[in-house]
Amino acid sequence: MTEVSGLVVEDLVVEVHGTPAVKGISFELGRGSRMGLIGESGCGKSLTALALMGLLPHGVTASGRVLLGGRNLLDLSDREMCAVRGNDIAMVFQEPMTALNPLMRVGNQIAESLRLHRGMSRAAAAARAVELIERVQLPEPDRTARRYPHQLSGGQRQRVVLAIALACDPAVLVADEPTTALDVTVQAEMLRLMDTLVREEGASLLLITHDLPVVASICEELLVMYGGTIVEHGDVATVFDSPRHPYTAGLKASTVLERTDGNSRLATIPGRVPALGAFPGGCVYRNRCPRADDACRTVPLLTAPPGSRRRAACHHPIESDQSLESGKASA
Amino acid sequence: MLIYFVRRLVILAVSLLAASVLVFTLLALLPGDQAQAMLGVNATPEALEALREQFGTNRPFTERYLDWVGGLVSGDFGTSPLSGVSVGAEIVDKLGVTVPLILSGMALALLIAVPLGVLAAVKSRTLLGTVLSALSQVGIAVPSFWLGILLITVFAVKLQVLPSGGFTGWEDLGGAAQSLLLPALVLGVAQGAILMRYVRSAVVEVMQEDFIQTARAKGLSRSQALTRHALRNAAIPVITVLGLQLATLLIGAVVIENVFGLPGLGRMLLQDVGNRDLLKVQGTVMVLTAAVLLINFLVDVVYHAVDPRLRSKA
Amino acid sequence: MTSVADAPPEATADVVATGTGKPHRRWNLTLVAGATLVSLVVLTAVLSFLWTPYDPTRVNPAQTLVPPSSTHWLGTDHFGRDIVSQLLVGARTTLFVGVVAVTISAAVGVPLGLLAATGRRWISEPVMRVLDIVFAFPAILLAIILAAGFNASTLTGMIAIGVANVPVFGRLTRAGALQVLQSDFVLAARSYGRRGVVLMVRYVLPNIAALLIVQASVSFAHAVLAEAALSYLGYGTPPPTPTWGRMLQEAQNYFVVQPMLAVWPGLAIALSVLGFNLMGDGLRDALDPRLRGR
């Protein structure tokens, strides 16, 4: 495996049939760091993940730079990218029920990756697959390897998917809503397992979710995405405690109220995520934002106040002492 | 798996039994008295009665049915009162033409459908894919007997490279193959066009499945994902269709044998219907129906063997 | 249909994002092409009632097997009958048989399918098994059996084709109904006491109507093919009424002299079948966007 420092994304644009869905985002995922990417559905999170993997569907194109180990992945041919996928950068998908080939024993599905990238023999790959099954803490690794996906529960399948992703010790693991489809009781275990393994491997993790507490539980850094742009970036604790962007505040408010008081009306952000291409000009959030005014007709830059690493793209950022109030306001 | 197999076997047996009742009843209830047909309207009642006695058609319905089915089980299809030949022997004789015709037709259909269908699926967004889809639509719409007539016109009448019909018998192997070439081709094109559509849609559908994305994320190329993961999954719906196709192929053969004058089961059936040789018709229809049911049974069993989800459910 | 309206915004975004939403132009073309061909056949049949160049059954010994000319646009057959006139009237038979056969299939198959979907095993199992057995009798075989007793006629052909396709409608209806019965809005309807015939007619049928319409179009294509084959074999509509299938059968004896005689009826059959199949495909795409491109 090539020595990789981390993942650098510069000005990534993803266009769906010519309409930009991800509008030039940049971030840096340091080696061994764990970053959360959060936002509502339709804000471009999954497209970002697929763009990193070079797995965008037909009619969807990516431009900009995705640097891994000194190479721009977007410049690679599909053939070159095949050597990177699963080897340097791997992915865990949202839907464990459908992410595995129903006609293939799970052990073989894990071994396939090893045979492909490591050139292992059938027997060696099979043995390693059993070890990996053990690492993702599935019971009876030997027997489990010989099982078909339908014989496993959703949580168990997601562990298999994780084992496939980690088989070749990738430098970067992209996890797209890895716990959303799981039972609540299994979610925490799965997150803990992913956290442990990523730590042990020294891999970097990009965790995509719409669930703020999930990010808070295992990530260090947080990216908040809306309308194809990054609206806020900083370390998890700070952003979570005192969001500067009204969208982040709205997300947090909906989560916090939901968790603390089941009887009160759920806090929601007014309106819904516009369809692709229907976001307003200027600040993408201004049609739903309680703070929007004429200044928001121009695109806000993602900037940090002096002496801080926290960046937010807002003309009227919330100052720390206001955040609680804003949370209530939108409730 | 075993439980499933046994259960399916019981269903097959019951279906065969029901089909035999249906075939027998249908033909017994049809108007038209064989004796009358043979002797004409001027026959005396005594002569008619004598002939009915000889045919056994004056015996009670259930007795005749049990007789017939009892014979079927031991492989005895009875003797045609009209021609005096053993129905079973005739059927076996004709199967010597029909079975090779159907099998070669199926083989050609697969040779056409699988590569073209996969290609049409992989290239579904390109001009080639559209052209291939359009071709299969045309292939489905063209009646097989028309295609047969056109091929005869071109290859037998104009170019004179192949016989226009008839069958020389298996003693002359080359001649037999030549006689079967055009009919098999016609069956193959007709069925291949239909099958190709199923192959295409099965592959297109499977290639959109999440596990293909997982395979790609592992580092498999598109073609590796296709061959290692998609094709086997796509095979499941195609196998089902294949079984149903074999059944339609059987009927297609009835028509095609008549286009090419091949002495097979289908041609015999039509002649027997024309002659009102009901016992032979009954036997032939029963064989065709049993073949369809048997094929469906085999398809179900294969289907369960291929798909582990069904295998363990039993 | 409700599911589309209630879908969260991500659903629409997903369709765009995965690129499965094809440009609309494409299915429209299929539908338009199919509907055009079908209308052509229908118009031909209608026209044949009002006008044909000649009496299609008029035998003219002086003008047998003449090549196409200004008097006989596509020539005449071995009896001197005008080909164009026969083709026009043949469209009638084709459509008539198709309409009646598909009506029989749907009228018997849909209620049976609904019955089999109601869930009680002792009723659904026998119904499905009977359909399986009927399924083992293809249309042509049934027609031939019927012809062994009755004289082959348009009626025996229609009944055979219709009955043979009952299992197709039965199975489709059952599968569709089972799916609809599991959906939330049916559960809701059940929870406030809707059941039996009312549930089936008011809730289930409208939701599988699209499936059935598509199947009707495809079955129509099958019926046209089966009718043509039966006429060709001499088990369909008897002479002198012209049918495309029998025109082909007669042409086969004369293709050394007039090979084109075998081309026109075949073309007519193929275009009709193509039309109904394309229309079915186009309708499927138009009525059920989820299946687009499959």
UniProtKB/TrEMBL annotation, chain A:
SUPFAM superfamilies given in the database record: P-loop containing nucleoside triphosphate hydrolases
Keyword Mitochondrion: no
Every ABC transporter domain range: 7-252
Gene3D superfamilies linked: P-loop containing nucleotide triphosphate hydrolases
Keyword Ligase (UniProt): no
Subcellular location: Cell membrane
Disordered, as annotated region: 307-331
Pfam families linked: ABC_tran (PF00005), oligo_HPY (PF08352)
Domain of life the protein comes from: Bacteria
GO molecular function: ATP binding
Family: Belongs to the ABC transporter superfamily.
PANTHER family: DIPEPTIDE TRANSPORT ATP-BINDING PROTEIN DPPD (PTHR43297:SF2), OLIGOPEPTIDE TRANSPORT ATP-BINDING PROTEIN APPD (PTHR43297)
Protein's name in the database: ABC transporter ATP-binding protein
Organism: Micromonospora qiuiae
The organism's taxonomic lineage, starting at the top: Bacteria, Bacillati, Actinomycetota, Actinomycetes, Micromonosporales
From TrEMBL, chain B:
Sorted UniProt keywords: Cell membrane, Membrane, Transmembrane, Transmembrane helix, Transport
UniProt cross-references to InterPro entries, sorted A to Z: BPD_transp_1_N, MetI-like, MetI-like_sf
Transmembrane segments: 9-30, 101-122, 134-157, 177-199, 234-256, 285-306
Membrane disposition: Multi-pass membrane protein
Keyword Flavoprotein assigned: no
Main location as per UniProt: membrane
Domain ABC transmembrane type-1 per the UniProt entry, residue ranges: 95-303
Subcellular location(s) per record: Cell membrane
PANTHER family listed in its UniProt record: DIPEPTIDE TRANSPORT SYSTEM PERMEASE PROTEIN DPPB-RELATED (PTHR43163)
Family, similarity comment: Belongs to the binding-protein-dependent transport system permease family.
Name this polypeptide is given: Peptide ABC transporter
Organism encoding this protein: Micromonospora qiuiae
Classification of source organism: Bacteria, Bacillati, Actinomycetota, Actinomycetes, Micromonosporales
Automatic annotation (TrEMBL), chain C:
Annotated keywords: Cell membrane, Membrane, Transmembrane, Transmembrane helix, Transport
Membrane-spanning segments: 29-51, 95-118, 130-149, 204-235, 255-276
Protein's membrane topology: Multi-pass membrane protein
Localization, UniProt: Cell membrane
Pfam families xref list: BPD_transp_1
Annotated ABC transmembrane type-1 domain residues: 91-280
Family: Belongs to the binding-protein-dependent transport system permease family.
Protein name as annotated: Peptide ABC transporter permease
